[in-house]
Specification:
CATH class: Alpha Beta
Strand order of the largest sheet: 2-6-1-7-8
Structural class: alpha/beta
Helix content: 40-55%
CATH topology: Rossmann fold
Strand content: 5-15%
Oligomer: single chain
Shape: globular
Low-confidence stretches: none
Order of helices and strands: EHEHHEEEHHEHEHHEH
Radius of gyration: 17 Å
Largest sheet: 5 strands, parallel
Bound molecules: 2'-deoxycytidine-5'-monophosphate
């Protein structure tokens, strides 16, 4: 079988990662959550006191890049310098700051290089914002996932509550709206629908419906 790269892009909390996970499991592919990689760098910056409500020391974080290893375990869990940080990267604190890190071109170059390396062996499903447009413009098949603000807010709110975070629906809504603005208006690789992407909506379908539509499309390519 040829080497397959499936990309799923879309705004935050549209359900990209859940769909990517389900597709990867079905075909026995690797799932790479590229958003988790930007979150890992954000966590590193926070832990090293380079990023808080009052400052973001971009230059020092750039100096640290050669010492920062962001990777995934065989079970597709995100690691930072060898430590699994799945839960830490999903915190509200990281969510509030990650778009600031993700809009810096040097950090994007660092991530894109790593993402291409992770995808080079193929048989991967990678989700994010610029995977079909910038990272793998020649991917086998590209999806773009949309969902209403209400569906996205509820998804993220329930996810955080389940993890024991104390947040309000209003806070989550404000964070998503702020990130949408930064992610779509940044100069470097803003969120766009990649050329030739199949647009899916999470509003009516739900995960099973999306999975059925996506795998039917993928099966046509694999035939
Ligand atoms: O998908 P997510 O919410 O976990 O992504 C976290 C942040 O990372 C999001 O605000 C935008 C950024 N991001 C990006 O710029 N490019 C990607 N390929 C993935 C995520």
């Amino acid at each position: 079988m040829e080497s397959i790269i499936i990309t799923i892009d879309g705004a935050s909390s549209t359900g990209k990662s859940s769909l990517a996970k389900a597709i990867a499991k079905h075909y026995g592919f690797k799932h790479i959550d590229s958003g988790a990689m930007y979150r890992a760098l954000t966590l590193y910056a926070q832990d090293h006191n380079l990023l808080n409500d009052h400052k973001f020391d971009v230059d020092t974080l750039i100096d640290h890049l050669p010492t920062i290893d962001i990777d995934f375990t065989n079970a597709d869990e995100i690691t930072l310098n060898g430590k699994i940080i799945e839960d830490q990267v999903r915190s509200m604190e990281v969510s509030n700051k990650v778009s600031l890190v993700a809009k810096e071109p040097l950090f994007r170059q660092f991530m894109v290089a790593k993402q291409r390396q992770l995808g080079e062996k193929g048989n991967v499903v990678m989700d994010g914002r610029d995977i079909g447009s910038v990272v793998f413009p020649n991917a086998t098949i590209k999806f773009f996932l949309e969902a209403s603000m209400e569906v996205r807010t509820n998804r993220r709110y329930e996810e955080l509550i389940e993890k024991g975070e104390q947040v309000s629906v209003e806070e989550v809504h404000a964070n998503i709206a702020k990130r949408d603005h930064i992610d779509s208006s940044r100069d470097d690789s803003p969120l766009i629908i990649p050329e030739n992407a199949i647009v899916l909506s999470n509003d009516k379908e739900g995960l099973t419906g999306l999975f059925n539509i996506a795998t039917a499309e993928i099966d046509i390519h694999l035939r």
